[in-house]
Amino acid sequence: MKTRPRYRPYWLSGRPSKPAPCRRQRSAVVFASGLALAVATFTAGRLLSVASEPVATASQSVSAVPATPSAAPTGEPAGEFTPKLLLAFAAYHPRKQQPTIYFYQHDGQSRGKMAGEVKSEAKRSDYHPSLGADGRLCAFAAEVENETSRIHVWDLAQQKLLELPDINKSPNAQLHASMGGSGKWVAFAAWRHPESDGRWDVLLYDVDGKRRLPLPGLNSQPLDERMPALSGDGRVLAYCSNDKAGLGATDIFCYDIAAGLPLYDDRLNSTRADIEPSLSGDGNLVAFASDRRGGEGGRDIYLYDRAKRELIPLPGLNSVAHEQSPSLSADGRFLAFVSERSAGEGERDIFLYDRQSAQLLPTPGLNGKHEDMDPSLIVLPP
């Protein structure tokens, strides 16, 4: 029987880390054919104002409130709930050879359900989705077999791809899309872009204006800048670089878009590989993955307060296995991430962590016995 090659993003081939136990299970499962796919339609007047959201900081205490299943609110039928969170992620469907982007709704406590997918095409791999803050748009990278990776933006309400001229104006690969400003901007990494400085560079695209925006002082010819992450308000751009001025093999930098100024914090980084940043709505909190010493496993998730210049504890989140691909909600309360822990359903699974209760939340129907990866998490508008 022909087997599917294991999906392994380019950024996971970095510095080796100590072996960690993980589940190696690839048995196929069949999705229920009658699954109803519901996608929320967002109308004008309900757009999320990220800048007005309270963003959690290290000064806020984390109470140990157990995450227990809750009854349906008054007026809601049993089994129904009001979605609070929207999650986009990539996964292998057992009947598909390439990964597809799926959507999942959660009530922020214990209930969740699948809520649609990006329409896939034959021989096209879709991965690393990034939701706009109001949940209307989702950017992602896509690679058709024997072609280079491209950046696309999916309209959840219209169920179609947006026409974005010049965003893929390059013969080379473009990866790791990140949306900011309620979907107004998309940042992404581009390899040897003809209008940039050299190797891996970070580019910024204006979705409304349909044009590329300058990022003066960010990219440099001999270095790699990649894995961009925009804050919800579009003011801060985090990215990874192998700049020799950093502490480790790969470090996280933050870029002030208005000032055009890269910012480096040695308390954020370590002498190992610090990668995959994700920002809170105002850009103050940075979630990231690192194989630094002192963690629970080979690679762990960390949360950093830029204003206080200190790490924030995440009790109960990490395991002895690899944790990676964090996605932080705009208010800083929820963290979605990927783990290879043996308690999961498949080889890689997505977990949801609530900083308020300091516990992992149940996510019924989210993971399967295939690979689930690349989560993007937002808090839905009320």
Question: What structural class results from the helix and strand content?
Answer: mainly beta
- Gyration radius from CA atoms, angstroms: 19 Å
Number of strands: 24
Q: Which whole number gives the mean pLDDT?
A: 83
Please trace the helix and strand order, writing H or E for each element: EEEEEEEEEEEEEEEEEEEEEEEE
How does this model look, in words?
By secondary structure, the chain is an all-beta fold. The chain is 0% helix and 37% strand. It has no helices and 24 strands. It has strands at residues 85-92, 99-106, 112-117, 124-131, 137-144, 150-155, 160-161, 174-180, 185-191, 200-206, 211-213, 225-230, 236-241, 251-256, 261-264, 274-279, 285-290, 300-305, 310-312, 323-328, 334-339, 349-354, 359-361, 372-379. Strands 3-2-1-24 form a 4-stranded antiparallel beta sheet, with no helix packed on it. Strands 4-5-6-7 form a 4-stranded antiparallel beta sheet, with no helix packed on it. Strands 8-9-10-11 form a 4-stranded antiparallel beta sheet, with no helix packed on it. The protein is globular and about 50 Å long. It starts with 84 loop residues before the first strand and ends with a strand.
SSE diagram, text form:
Elements: E1 85-92, E2 99-106, E3 112-117, E4 124-131, E5 137-144, E6 150-155, E7 160-161, E8 174-180, E9 185-191, E10 200-206, E11 211-213, E12 225-230, E13 236-241, E14 251-256, E15 261-264, E16 274-279, E17 285-290, E18 300-305, E19 310-312, E20 323-328, E21 334-339, E22 349-354, E23 359-361, E24 372-379
Antiparallel strand pairs: 1-2, 1-24, 2-3, 4-5, 5-6, 6-7, 8-9, 9-10, 10-11, 12-13, 13-14, 14-15, 16-17, 17-18, 18-19, 20-21, 21-22, 22-23
